[in-house]
Amino acid sequence: MPYQLDQTDRRILSVLLENARISNSELAERVNLSPSPCWQRVRKLEERGYIKKYTAVLDQALLGMPDTALVEIRLQQHDSTSFEEFGAKLSKLPEVLEIFAKTGEFEFFLKVAVNGTAGLDEFIQRKLHPLPEIRETRSNFVLRNLKETRAYLPEM
Predict the structure, then answer these.
(1) Within a domain: residue 56?
(2) Residue 99 near residue 91, CB atoms below 8 Å
(3) Helix, strand, coil abundance in the chain, percent, nearest 5
(4) How many Cβ atoms are within 10 Å of 134's Cβ, its own excluded?
(5) Distance CA 112, CA 90 (A)
(6) N or C: which terminus of the chain carries fewer CB neighbours within 10 A?
(7) Cβ density class 84-112: b for 16+ within 10 Å, e for less
């Protein structure tokens, strides 16, 4: 049976979702624990896999890639080998922020960092269209991001 999170574990996870760089003493204060038990709980949450990793969220605009495009890809073939190999190829493209294998008429959905329409065109023409597995692509620009989060913490 999986470990059951209690309210304190959930408060810890909630605070870490907001700021993973918070100090243990500040985290402990925010969740009403002393620092040592708080640190032990965080370690147990890591060991049990509830916390997979800590990461930084970078400002794409400051890095010269201010726009986000959503690209759907339809493949030529649908066998599992070509599907996995193609997913591995997509993973190597640095502009690709996220890759989703999905249902529907298009098999893949990409979130891509680009610099305007010219950047999207260059990405599609130079990185995607040379891949022989692709039958068709469809893309859209994100106008603005209304919510960004890395996880959903369901209520108890």
Answers:
(1) no
(2) yes
(3) 35, 20, 45
(4) 16
(5) 11
(6) N
(7) eebeeebeeeebbeebeeeeeebbbbbeb
31 and 77 in a single domain? The answer is: no
Instruction: Report which of 57, 62, 16 is spatially closest to residue 39, judged by C-alpha positions.
Output: 16
Query: What is the crossing angle of helices 35-47 and 7-18, to 10°?
Result: 80
Q: Which two tokens stand for residue 105?
A: 């008429």
Range name among 3-7, 33-37, 95-99, 119-123 with the lowest pLDDT average: 3-7
The count of structural domains within the chain is 2
Domain range for 137:
67-141
Q: In whole angstroms, how far apart are CA 103 and each of 6, 108, 128?
A: 35, 8, 20
How many alpha carbons fall within 13 Å on the CB side of residue 35? 5
Dihedral sign for Cα 73, 76, 78, 81, please. Answer: negative
pTM, two decimals, is 0.86
Q: Which amino acid, residue 95?
A: E
pLDDT-derived band at 13, boundaries 50, 70, 90? very high
Kind and range of the H or E element at 80? helix 80-91
d(Cα 14, Cα 68) in Å, to the nearest integer?
A: 27
